[in-house]
Amino acid sequence: MLPPSLVRALADDATPDAARRIIDLAVDFLDASRSGAGPVSTALSSSQLAARFREPMPAEGVPLEWLTQRVRDDVLSDANHLTHPMYMGHQVSSPLPVAIWIEAVISAMNQSIAVAEMSPTATVLETQLIRWMCESLGWGSASGGTFTSGGTEATFTALLAARARAMPDAWRDGVGDDAPSVVCGEHAHYAVTRAVGELGLGMRRVISIPSRDWRMDPDALSAALETLAASGQRAMAVVATAGSTATGSFDDLERIGVLCERHETWLHVDGAHGASALLSRTHRSRMRGIQRARSVAWDPHKMMLMPLAAGMLLVRDERDLSAAFAQQAPYLFHSAPGERGWDQGTRSFMCSRRADALKLWAALQRYGSSGLAALYDHLCETTQGLHAEIIRRGDFEALHTPESNILCFRYLGTSANESALDALNASLRERYNASGDGWITTTILGGRRVLRVTIMNPHTTPSHTSRMLDTLARLAGA
Questions:
Q1: Hey, which CATH number is domain 112-353, 3.30.450.20, 3.10.580.10, 3.40.640.10, 3.90.1300.10?
Q2: Which of 158, 372, 402, 471 is most buried, by the most CB atoms less than 10 A from its CB?
């Protein structure tokens, strides 16, 4: 028998008043950061924050008022404020409001979307969303896909499907000693090499293609594929990138696609960041040739500004995705042999999976594809404005022209010593982030330490990017 105190707590927590207490935490958090007030992040270290939560597991519950106050004081107070206009850090979005609120509905439904009978509306809704996205790629009715946790899972699943096509007995027999190769650009996301290792192919099977202007060099790719063919080796897949992590650059998908067709090689496009350019009339040309791909990773939780997590894997022929997962589970999946069943679990790693498709569907209903396209254009335009300002100034150097919403640059200072400039830029980023005035990232580009911004917040304006440069310059001279 449940203790009376627990029964009361369960009843009280299901009331509108309790819901408002929780929702108000999110509302206040968003309001405070969106206004630009307060620090962007915390100056405390992970060890310092860990001391705040170092306590025995609670044996008894506490009042909801106490819990909400502790979340406010101990969790939200030192969280990263992604909706703060001075946050220009990683590729994590300042999420759209309707998608934030619909998260509570997703949790309230608690549908396991992998099985149609466990999620009657959400499973078909995901299927419709996948259909819309496949159509935007220029694919026909044979295409399909699944939601994923993000681009890493999507790329892994795509390469699993490519392995099933190249080695149809690998699920039963393993890959053996004669594993095929996977070809990718030198700036490909680490998800590619991780997948190659996890698939048992071996890291020596990865062929890295050098870049030209931060994009995979198609001429070098052509030479590599010709060398593989001449030596009798197999290329299981080529992985191109649309919106690279380092610079936001787009590989030449048209030329790469033609090469893959000539060599009958699977083309996977990691469009986790950049595939949303397809929504934009201004930027969709960067995705020219995408219809030639056999699989595409696309993360709505990046440039479509969804809350985490909302990733997708799309395939030109859905049968390729189904073939990647050879197991049978008749206690869950009930489609007849040869039929396209509604169960998404036959095309996905996960079985217990949230109905994350609902938040993307809600955002498209509320703002329309044109609204999401306008947001994409705005983020890119703001980044282009930052690039133009850096060109006008003499104290910073831009490392590339932005093709999306990512820009790498560095402070020049007065030293001509490259190692000294590397150290200066690394320390500058640390001091800037610790100041609370803003938040940016850093990377190595062309062998040099550089500063890197990703504009993921519609509330970030040119005045904020100018303020970021001014503050960096001031800190550098301090």
A1: 3.40.640.10
A2: 158
